[in-house]
Task: structure prediction
Amino acid sequence: MRRWLFIQALRLPLVPSAAGASASPLARGMVLALAVAALLLAPFLVDALLGRAWVRVLDLVMLYTMLALGLNIVVGFAGLLDLGYIAFFAVGAYLYALCASPHFGLYLPFWLLLPAAAVLAGVFGVLLGAPTLKLRGDYLAIVTLGFGEIIRIFLNNLNAPINLTNGPQGITMVRPIEVAGVSMAQVHSIGPLSIPALYNYYYLFLALTLLVVFVSIRLQHSRVGRAWVAIREDELAASASGVNTRNLKLLAFALGASFGGIAGSLYASFQGFVSPESFGLMESIMVLCMVVLGGMGHVRGVVLGAVLLVALPEALRYIGPMQRSLFGQVMVEPSDLRLLLFGIALVLVMRWRPAGLWPSPVRRREFAAAPAAGGSASTGPEPRP
Amino acid sequence: MLGSIYALVALGYTMVYGILGLINFAHGEVVMIGAMVAISVVLAIGTGGLPAPIVLLAGVAVSIPACMLLGALLERVAYRPLRDAPRLTALITAIGMSIVLQNLAMIAWGRQYLSFPPLLPNEPHAFLGATVTGTQLLIVALTVSLMGALLLLINRTRLGRAMRATSQSPALAGLMGVDVNRIIMLTFMLGSALAAVAGIMIAGYYGQAHYYMGFMLGLKAFTAAVLGGIGNVSGAMLGGLALGVIESLGAGYIGALTGGFLGSHYQDVFAFAVLILVLVFRPSGLLGERVADRA
Result:
């Protein structure tokens, strides 16, 4: 409780200074304009410098940024460790795939399916949240993990007796997104510029990602966001201070899940194919890694985490040729190395930067202050049964 | 049968949780590595000249110390520096270690299934109206005796008393002259030794092992530990056996119960459904005491 009041006291003077960053309005405007230009030109630059494959990586970066920001609401803001987050991604992806593919012969429009995916995933979020309201920490983590696995097992097996999900083969030929009659999967030309499919998706994802970033930041500084932080720091104190913990926790689950659902339906149309194996536990952990490595509860940090974790494995591909030139043969397959390096990175970051690579100022102060404040008060560990 | 293996693995979870309040996610991987090491040793010796039991014992004799070393290493490298850190930090580290071990095993042993040579007697016997194989009997007998030994160790010896004291309050136990770090490390080693035995059993039973086998097994064993009341040693045994029975019966009867709508490939769902139900309705488990609000 004492710590929570401490945080609340910190918050007021801190928010304006974090936003202002002691720069003049002109300089900030310049930076903003540069950033916008960089984001708009990114696919052209990346294509020219690194090749077309990296534009695809850029698209995936956007997709995972959305996903990580959704999970950040649940884990970072409200402090509810969710290890089955990918289930909501799966719900969104399967909804889109089922309603826009030859599997059922349905071709519902994108603008209907995207909100529908958000709502359905949100409902699943509440379904998961409602029975687990009383659980905390480790137990919640395990139950959410179980929930994610249950969803995957059902997707994998619901091909008999009624073929709902087409089982392990997944659903193919998912129709690409069409905006106002313009298909995303075709090459368009505006004057001398020709814009391939990957670019189209990039701009669509960019727009939605910016929306998600905007919503996240607004949420963080809203009354709801502050209440979530209060729950994260000390649920008992929060509820004693008049925070409706039940509703707010459900809201966190539902909102986080709906972001996941949106990202899922975009993924389905982008890939043109969904199958249960894309929604395993490892994917959940990947997204969690983005949130944790970047900096839990810090929107900029989470974006950084998503960018790093999507781009680095791609960079690892170059390790194969590198080994060949060093040892004359490929000693370890780069794809085998990927998860290993993830695991090591997780452990190392938790050991030396427990608040993440780019923590929010509040969390950083909290982590720095914790040993000093806790050292004299009590040296014993937390109470446990 | 399956239940007794779950119970052995669950013991490792529950002992560590009882002392540190940490879910050692990497415990399932210790089981896997136990199985892999044993198989490698058995294959290296070969089944040619020596009698089968000796080859098997050699595998066990290498695998148990290897796992104990691994458990001690995990504790020292990953968990000890984080002992006073927030729970989330420790939990994520545990997940990270689990990924690391899994992928190291994959690089070391490859992606394919390793097959365990049939060293154990496998002819069926009639026993109380049911048919069991020699392997199954051996597993159950071994589990029961190991559990008995563990209970004796915890309740009757000096080491056990130190472990119980540490789990109640590490700070006070330290004041009473218990070397807390040593006790925690020994707990990890003990849990890992049991994990090695469980790994060999499951490899012997299914006749194969795989780098990914530890993960699901670990989750189910954790479920078993929660079911019995986490932190409670006899609870873990009971929970393991109960979960094994629920799963086998559930997988057997689900088709009939739902009119053929759901089949036995939903077996894995049972463990998780049980876990969720237990946590919602009786979070302290079957044998656990009521737990005060935990942070």
